[in-house]
Amino acid sequence: MGEMSEHHFLITEIIKGNTKALEQLFSLLKNTVFNVALGYTRNREDAEEITQDVFVEIYESAATFKGESSVKTWACRITINKSLDFIRYKNRKKRFALLTSLVSKETGEVKFHQPDFNHPGVSLENKEKAQYLFAAIDRLPDNQRTAFILLKLEGMSQREAAETMQLNEKALESLYQRAKQNLRKALSDIYDEL
Amino acid sequence: MEREKWIDETLTVADAIGRVEARATLFAGIKSRIKTEGIVPLRVVWLAAASLVLLVALNWLILSETAGSDSSNSSAVPSYSFTETSFNLY
To answer: Closest approach of chain B CAs to the CA of A184, in angstroms?
Structure first.
């Protein structure tokens, strides 16, 4: 059985309330869902919470899955929406707190503190630069941020990312190019703030 | 120049971010949430919605029919004149 037909078969079983099928789908897609969520939250605990939310949603709304896209891209879409909602909720809670952690180049003093940064895929030597990179990613509009996360961080193919974002490949490519340009601008601003 | 170098170095960090394995134990949390939240089958949701619509429609129908019969019966109600002067009740 091919990957896509296996996923579709599992969805039909989930509709019947088969939790074993959900467990199988979880083991097939958990890393994709988790890493996409991690791209937005860069915090293991938050990404785990989103991953759980996504699979509960898949179980609850399996009957609404039309089969027009692959189960993987459908799951990714749910992950993106949940992640963006989660970030908005967290930002509301931290209205007055600055999220970026920037260290003064002259004094080495921490100007801003980002306590949530706990990305398990970032090595210790890259941690400081990764925080600047994610601070810049945070300044992108939602669709550009999503294009960058799917293509660059999650390593999806153009076709898969375009299907996930419900765009054609040309539109996705131009979105990605704009994201890269805006990231350079945001990093330049961060450089000035250091 | 130094700025461009710093930006390029920071951007290359994106290539060094590794994929992370999600813990398999997360499924236990999903399972317990499914059990505690309890899933209402979609068929039940539609049935409830249809019942509600039917109830509202029946209410509307009954009310409009009652209003209609009230207005048609109004001519059958004897009219009493406010200017009736005889108060002889015997």
So the answer is: 7
Number of C-beta neighbours around residue A134 at 10 A: 24
Range of the domain at B46: 39-71
CATH number for position A186: 1.10.10.10
Across the A:B interface, residue pairs with CB atoms under 8 Å apart total 92
Residue A31's closest CA among A48, A17, A16, A46? A48
State the sign of the Cα–Cα–Cα–Cα dihedral A168, A172, A173, A174: positive
State whether A164 and A84 are in the same domain.
Answer: no
Identity of the residue in B14, B24, B30 whose CB atom sits nearest the CB atom of A56? B30
**Are A114 and A68 in the same domain?**
no
Structural domain range at position A106: 97-194
Partnered with residue A103 across adjacent β-strands are A110
CB-based contact A184 B13, cutoff 8 Å: no
ipTM value for the complex: 0.77
pLDDT digits (tens, 9 = 90+) for A137-165: 999 999 999 999 999 999 999 999 999 99
From chain A, the residues in CB contact with B29 under 8 A are: 52
Token pair for A86: 């989660």
Gap between the Cα atoms of A75 and A83, Å rounded: 12
A188–B7 C-beta distance less than 8 A: yes
Q: 26-85 in B: which are within 8 Å (CB) of A?
A: 26-27, 29-31, 33-34, 37, 39, 42
Q: Are residues A88 and A108 in the same domain?
A: no
| pLDDT (tens digit per residue) in A40-96 | 999 999 999 999 999 999 999 999 998 888 999 999 999 999 999 999 988 887 665
Residues in A closer than 8 angstroms to B10, CB to CB, are: 129, 132-133, 136, 187
B14 touches chain A (CB under 8 A): yes
